Amino acid sequence: MPVVEVPVEKWTGKVHQVTLGAGGRKSITLGGENTLPFLKFEGSMPHRPAVAIEVQDKQPKDWSPHLVSAWGDVLKDPAAWAKKAAEYGADIIVLSLKSAHPEDGNTGAQEAKKNVAAVLSAVDLPVIVLGPGVAAKDNEVLVAASEVGKGQRLALGNCEEKNHRTVAACCIADGHVAIGRTPIEINLAKQLNILLCDVGLQPNSILMDPTTGALGYGLEYSYSVMERLRLACLMGDSMTSMPMICTVGEEAWRQKEAKATEGVPKNWGDHKTRALVWEELTAIALLNAGADIVVLRHPKVVELVKATINRLMS
After folding, report:
1. 8, 236, 265, 290: which has the fewest Cβ within 10 Å?
2. What is the mean pLDDT of the chain?
């Protein structure tokens, strides 16, 4: 029988490499691939995707009982929570400063400094710090976080068009990485990367958060935008070549399939299984779309997703 030659794509571009963690803290390098996710027969994928676990600076009040029971009393203390996340296999800790939101505590720089310092002292893993998603408050708490973590190569978000100068200045001054967050649109993601580079931030100090939906809630559109970003990168566009981070847990666990226990069709099955599957499948889909970091919530999902990454990388 004739031998059929498998067609292999030849790409000219590759993803920028971004390293988190420094100053005695464990480091992790993301990106560097010059092929589509896990297609190692076409190119190289030198760094495996990272699994991060979300830690909040205040006890969540709206979480599913399955999430609450999985974590227990550590939810009351971000430092203890971060330690437990490290035990569960997190590659990165994501500290979300939820209490700084104007409608959910409205805490400020001093509270942010205290919580960031506590988490940095509790674990030696790379740390990402996320503001509450309100530009003015993000500026306040991220400047504080940047000062506390100076020289430790944190990642700071959300960095958006309206506050990109402030966040970029912190990253340049204190040696951190900016997380550029944009609505799900390829040109907006590229434009924000250009703006960050224009103010002096290097491409190896930028992560992209293109925003994502959960399984059944815009996942297909998110996947297509991320795939287009990665294809543009591989075709040589350096301003779409930053590693991508996806806040999977937050998106998956706020959907009714992960939250609803009553008034749902019987064929939806067991609630706990359904909720875990919602987060797991969202994460796996986005890893195949090009995510370099997936931020998860449930420890069991962390285990399942890491096992999947192991199989894909092998």
Report:
1. 265
2. 96
